[in-house]
Amino acid sequence: MAHEPKLLEHEYDGIREFDNPTPGWWHALFFGIVGFSVFYLMISTGSPLYDTPIMSHDKDKLAWIKSLFGELGELEPTEATIVRYYADPADEYAGQWMPYAESLFKANCVSCHGANGEGSVGPNLTDDAFINVASVTDIYDIIQNGANAGAMPAWGNRFHPNDVVLLSSYVANMRGQNLPGLPPDGEVPAPWPTLDEIGGAAPEEFTEDEENAGAG
Amino acid sequence: MAAAAAAEATFAQTGPSDPQIDEFSYDDQIVRMFLWATLIWGIVGFLAGVIIAFQLAVPQLNFLPEVAFGRLRPLHTNAAIFAFAGNAIFCAVYYSTQRLCKTRMFSDTLSRLHFWGWQLIIVSAALTLPFGITQGKEYAELEWPIDLAIAVVWAGFFGVNFIGTLINRRERHLYVAIWFYIASLVTVAILHIFNNIWIPVGIVDVIKTGELSSFDNSLKSYSVYAGVQDAFMQWWYGHNAVAFFLTTPFLGLMYYFLPKAADRPVFSYKLSIVHFWSLVFIYIWAGPHHLHYTALPEWASSLGMVFSLMLWMPSWGGMINGLLTLRGAWNKVAQDPILKFFVVGVTFYGMSTFEGPMLSIKTVNSLSHYTDWTIAHVHAGTLGWNGFMTFGMVYWLAPRLFQSGRLFSEKLASLHFWIGTIGILLYVISIYTAGITQGLMWRAFDDSGALAFPKFIETVTRLMPFYWIRAIGGTMYLVASVIGVYNVFMTWRMRPPTYDVPVIRAAKLSKFYDDGPAPASRLNANVGLGHAGDRFMQAHWHRRWERLPIRFTVYVTVAVAIASLFEIIPTFLIRSNVPTIASVQPYTPLELAGRDIYIAEGCYNCHSQMVRPIFAETQRYGEYSKPGEFVYDHPFQWGSRRIGPDLHREGGLQSSFWHYAHFENPQEYQAGSVMPAYKHLINQDLNFQEIEARVHSMAMLGVPYGDAVNNSVEMAREQAAQVAQEIRDQATNYALVDDLENKKVVALIAYLQRLGTDISKPAPEDDPGVAGEGSEGGDS
Questions:
Q1: Nearest CA to B353 among B279, B403, B438?
Q2: Within an 8 Å CB–CB cutoff, is residue B18 touching chain A?
Q3: Which of B192, B196, B166, B173 shows the shortest CA–CA distance to B86?
Q4: Does residue B481 carry a pLDDT above 90?
Q5: Contact between B455 and A106 using a beta-carbon 8 Å cutoff
Q6: Cα-flanking dihedrals φ and ψ of residue A89, to 5°?
Q7: How far is Cα A195 from Cα A199, in angstroms, rounded to an integer?
Q8: DSSP string for residues in B350-392
Q9: What are the percentages of helix, strand and coil residues in chain B, rounded to 5?
Q10: Do the Cβ atoms of B368 and B374 come closer than 8 Å?
Q11: Domain architecture of chain A: domains with CATH
């Protein structure tokens, strides 16, 4: 009997319908999901068990800042700091932070300065000539505040302060590669100081950990 | 006269117990017209799709502004949805409703008005979208005069004709296909009207100046909704356009043509009832899943997610009823290309309606959103479900409508099926891969804690092989469809000199009808609630509804309206949904003109303006977007796909000159870029006089322009001169266009430089909404 479904009496333009019940697994899944939905709505509305996307984001960001900059503290944009982070052979400086700075450069700078800094809309960064730059801290100022009537945008409100210092260091280190690209523009400043001139590899006294200052 | 009087007298004597037999014929001519329209627009829509697929692989194909990706993509979606699927729906409705109701359509005149009105709408879409005349809301791009025409043709011609036919029916009860047609008719009308509430700039201009407006302004309108609310309304519409334009009418189509073609009874009448009502009620809530992780309030996002999950089983009810109807007919599937189309179509429906709920889960969505995954999902549904159900119907109808006795070639139909199926698989598999690849690349970090793929372009060039495979798959689907059209054309040529019009005889419905006794409970135990439940489960009450078309329609409307209002009313009334940010100011008149160019060029088809609060995303683009930043965005431009990078924090990111040079030659400044060149924006003059009416319209929508309303043109010229000077100052050794300050590109650059910058400006006065920004660590 159970294998022979009952045919309903009605008929529409020759189409008939069986009186089969709705499948049991269909009911189970449907009502199961309805139950879950009620539960989920209760959990997700102001319950401590649930993080909104913004809460998760802020936690992720805090964890990132701690893991990345926890040991650096807040970098001061001094000549010594900028030179040390590219020139110091010690692994925790150049080796660790320059790949990070390179990623920042690729994400934000290459559309104007070319894929390897050889220049495009913005000047070639790999030659010896710089525009309005006398020292490495001037590089920092230009990244932080912009230059040339906005041709170079200001990045100070987009980056973590440490990012700007590390990026300055990365850009300072590009000098002298002389990649083929835009011709040199501007003045040739005195050579950047060597590691010895800034007082060797020893790091400065760290300032107190202020990991969140200016984030965002 | 005398005979008629006599007949009347006889009727009066015998009374309703002896029903009068009517003689009538079905209007198949209108079905033939819709069939041809389906096929012709299908080819147009698929061809547009193939072109834009190749444009992504070869950006040089964007050689004319009128057929650049941003303008052709809306044409493709509109043609595929409203022209191809639309005419297919009407073809199915006009053929099956007449037969299921045993009556001719209510009015032949309305049928013709519907047909020609709809084709006229499609032609006007093709004449406006390539010229940048668009509202800039996806699948609702058509400008306001066409919107009005759609409302008249849909509700006034189609709606009246359809409901009139139901009233004139000679079949007591409505078959399940008709239920789905009713739901489609009612809901599409509601969605269309409420999403398309706008202020027409041209009308404002006429009222204000007493003179006729310019051509562009006459066709231009601004959505009355802004930002978060506009996004909510748009995706309430967008999602339910999928539901009630691409799903419910095709379920109706399936319920008629599949059992006909298989010559088998439908699997379960009870399942039809349960899945119909649950589908109609639940679908309408699900729209917010298109806006997960955006500035939409979290409660709406959660509702959208759970209702999408709940939708899984109601959707699968349709698939089960389709596939299990073929029980006992599987041997036929091997032989009959029509059943093959139906089986694959229904299977794709099942896959898409499983995938949809899955994609609506927030964490899955954080990966899939803005990637090609969504595009693959949509095309599994449209090419598989809508396309193949349509072609199955067309092949079944062709020999019947053209009275040729048989299809011209079963073999060609099979060939169509196989090429089409392989085309779909190539399309979706490559684009699924592309979507997941891009989504994973966007969020990947390397060991140094930096983004692993910081250059957005890396995530574009990586997709090139998939874009090629997709284009080839799409081309196969197009070729297969051309074979189909040829087959139908040859079938048409086998038609008789004149079509036979069979006379149908059926009894009128009597005024009186007895539903029969309500069923007794079949339970033995003496529990009142159990008995009530068992009586309910026997659905006698629903059987009664099925013979009351007006009441049925009202119930469907109530189900849809209640669900909508539960979400819409809080979205508009709860102020905390959109916390005000004091530093966010209206766009300047020039920036507004630039924004209109952004919309007209269809930039939103490739660029989002919504940085989600996801860490990989704020690392790439900057601070996540806040609801209060969009309060002057009529319409919103959050976008749905990132073929190019997000632009919400674009302001100040590049120099104005860089934008100029990049618009002129994108590939020169970004090797591997797939962006079209926008040289015409550099060469064309901006019509400054048009700005005044636009600012005025915005002011009418409540944007606080103050005095700017009266000197907007002057202000725009002043700012244009500043931006042009800035570009000149920044450009070295670059040939800029003469009188740059008059060109469109200046307005667009002014807009781009403004995007997302207000939030970092000082507030006019102390405001907690701004002071709180960026202080995440304050409590740690």
A1: B279
A2: no
A3: B192
A4: yes
A5: yes
A6: -70, -15
A7: 7
A8: HHHHHHHHHHHSHHHHHHHTBSHHHHHHHHIIIIIIIIHHHHH
A9: 70, 5, 30
A10: yes
A11: 7-42 (no CATH), 74-201+208-216 (1.10.760.10)
Give pLDDT, residue A120: 84
Residue B579 CA: distances (Å) to CA of B499, B566, B625, B770: 66, 21, 12, 10
Cα dihedral across residues B77, B79, B220, B661: positive or negative: positive
Query: Are β-strands B221-223 and A15-18 bridged in parallel, bridged antiparallel, or unpaired?
Result: unpaired
Triad B723, B724, B728: Cα angle to 5°: 115
Query: Are the CB atoms for B465 and B411 separated by under 8 Å?
Result: no
- Across A56-73, b (16+ Cβ under 10 Å) vs e yields bbbebbbebbeebbeebb
Each residue of B65-78: pLDDT tens digit? 999 999 999 999 99
Q: B336, B414 in Cβ contact below 8 A?
A: no
The alpha carbon dihedral of B595, B597, B598, B600 has a sign of positive
Q: In chain B, what are the domains?
A: 23-493 (1.20.210.10), 589-763 (1.10.760.10)
Chain B residue with CA closest to A30: the answer is B313
Taking only residues 624 to 663 of chain B, the set having a beta carbon closer than 8 angstroms to any beta carbon of chain A reads 624, 649, 652-658, 661-662
Here the tokens at position A162 are 């440490």
Q: Read off the pLDDT band of A122 (50, 70, 90).
A: confident
Q: Is A121 left (phi over 0), alpha (psi -120 to 50) or beta?
A: alpha
Amino acid at B61: L
Q: Which residues of A touch B771 (CB under 8 A)?
A: none
pLDDT band at B222 (very low <50, low <70, confident <90, very high): very high
Residue whose structure tokens are 């979400």: B567
Q: Give the count of beta carbons closer than 10 Å to the beta carbon of residue A90.
A: 12
B655/A151 CB distance under 8 A: yes
Span B769-775, average pLDDT: 36
Q: Which residues of A touch B316 (CB under 8 A)?
A: 26
Distance of CA B129 to the CA centre of its chain: 15
What local confidence, expressed as pLDDT, does residue A119 receive? 87
| pLDDT confidence tier of residue B212, bands split at 50, 70 and 90 | confident
* CA distance linking residue B13 with residue B18, whole number of Å: 10
ipTM greater than cut 0.85: yes
Query: Would you say A124 and A117 are in contact if contact means Cβ atoms under 8 Å apart?
Result: yes
Report how many Cβ contacts below 8 Å link chain A to chain B: 194
CA distance linking residue B653 with residue B513, whole number of Å:
73
Element (H, E) at B97: helix B86-100
pLDDT, residue B70, reads 96
Q: To the nearest whole angstrom, how far is the Cα of A46 from the nearest Cα of chain B?
A: 10
B-contacting residues of A 97-156, CB under 8 Å? 97, 99-100, 103-104, 106-108, 110-112, 115, 120-122, 148-154
| Beta carbons of B249 and B94 less than 8 angstroms apart | no
- Minimal-distance CA residue of chain B relative to A66: B777
Host H or E run for residue B223: strand B221-223
The closest of B703, B458, B723 to B590, measured between CA atoms, is B723
| pTM for the structure as a whole | 0.91
pLDDT tens, B10-44? 444 444 445 689 999 999 999 999 999 999 999 99
Angle between the N-to-C axes of helices B248-262 and B337-360, in degrees from 0 to 180, rounded to the nearest 10: 150
Residue-averaged pLDDT of chain B = 92
Alpha-carbon distance of B509 to B491, in angstroms, equals: 37
Kindly tell me if the per-residue pLDDT of B765 is higher than 70: no
- Give CA–CA dist B723/B739, Å, rounded: 12
